Amino acid sequence: MVGDIAKGKQINGSELLDEGMYYVMNGGITPSGYYNNYNTPANTISISEGGNSCGYVQYNSVPFWSGGHCYNLRIKKSFDSQYIFHFLKFKELDIMALRIGSGLPNIQKKDLEHFQVLVPDFTTQKKVAGLFVLINKKEETEMKLMNAWKMQKKYLLQKLFI
Questions:
Q1: CA 3 – CA 77 distance, rounded (Å)
Q2: Whole-prediction pTM value?
């Protein structure tokens, strides 16, 4: 086992804010809202527990509030959390296949605890994780560049047809 799995703590929806210091992750892909407190530290892997997106794997690089439909992986120090994240993200469809129920599907903690993770030695974990971190940074840079080109194109087209 690469770490411990903990479930978040639900907060009343009336306590959610439109803006706040910490985002609230529940069973979805995007934050449910914001809260001025956190219950989960930065650099934590979370997996959506219930709903249509159950099994969604996310790396949280900042502290956040983990809601009642969110599992958090507390990775042991002998494993690289970025490597574990990228492995689980690669296996996300297999994790989603663990869902049970049809009305409001969910993933059971016991099934996540038995999910097999391929773990090479620590040096290899660091190398693989470093490569994927660089690829993600490259992807982010390319997306920003593409958005800037789209904005410039829109501006030029508006000037052309005035």
A1: 9
A2: 0.84
Tokens of residue 87, six digits: 């492995």
Cα–Cα distance for residue pair 79/125, rounded to 1 Å: 8
Q: Are 72 and 6 in contact (CB under 8 A)?
A: yes
HEC per residue, the chain: CCEEEEECCCCCHHHCECCCCEEEECCCCCCCEEECCCCECCCEEEEECECCCCCCEEEECCCEEECCCEEEEEECCCCCHHHHHHHHHHCHHHHHCCCECCCCCECCHHHHHCCCCCCCCHHHHHHHHHHHHHHHHHHHHHHHHHHHHHHHHHHHHHHHCC
Q: CB of 42 within 8 A of CB of 85?
A: no
Contacts for 80 with CB less than 8 Å, ≥ 6 apart: 122, 125, 126, 129
Distance CA 11, CA 26 (A): 10
6-56 pLDDT per residue, tens: 999 998 888 888 888 999 998 889 999 999 999 999 999 999 998 889 999
Q: In the numeric block, which tokens belong to residue 70?
A: 């969110």
Tell me: the pLDDT tens digits for 119-135? 999 999 999 999 999 99
